[in-house]
Amino acid sequence: VHGGVDLTPNKDQGVIKVVQCPGFDVDRPMIGDRVTVHYTGKLLTGKKFDCSRERKEPFCFNVGKGQVLKSWDIGVLSMRRGEVCTLLCKPEYAY
Questions:
Q1: pTM as predicted
Q2: d(Cα 21, Cα 42) in Å, to the nearest integer?
Q3: DSSP string, 3-41
Q4: What Å distances lie between residue 89 and 27, 45, 54, 55, 56, CA to CA?
Q5: Measured between alpha carbons, how far is 16 from 78 in angstroms, rounded to an integer?
Q6: 60-93: per-residue pLDDT in tens?
Q7: Is 56 left (phi over 0), alpha (psi -120 to 50) or beta?
Q8: Which residue range is the domain that position 81 belongs to?
């Protein structure tokens, strides 16, 4: 993926992050922190299957604790407050 960064510890390209808008904070969340995100879930075909903004309700979870997809734990731990990015995930890091 052009401009993407492999976030996986073993560099198997299971989670690729492409930043659309950098965040405005220098700190990143730590494992166990409560985070609030908006997201749009899409298949590689571009078909949308979920969107928090359409429900007008952000999603909250404790990052790094296995409460969400493995790709979200990995990806969100790399983000800064206000950052907008795309996470491209292999199936073993998604559902």
A1: 0.91
A2: 19
A3: T-EE--TT--SSEEEEEEE--S-S----TT-EEEE--EE
A4: 24, 13, 22, 23, 25
A5: 11
A6: 999 999 999 999 999 999 999 999 999 999 999 9
A7: left
A8: 5-93
pLDDT above 90: residue 3: no
Look up the CATH number of the domain holding residue 12.
Answer: 3.10.50.40
Number of domains in the chain: 1
> What is the gyration radius of the CA atoms in the chain, in angstroms?
13
Locus of tokens 């007008």:
56
Instruction: Identify the three-state secondary structure at position 93.
Output: helix
Query: In the structure encoding, which two tokens stand for residue 44, read together?
Result: 């590689």
CB count within 10 Å of CB 79 equals: 21
Q: Provide the token pair at 5.
A: 């960064």
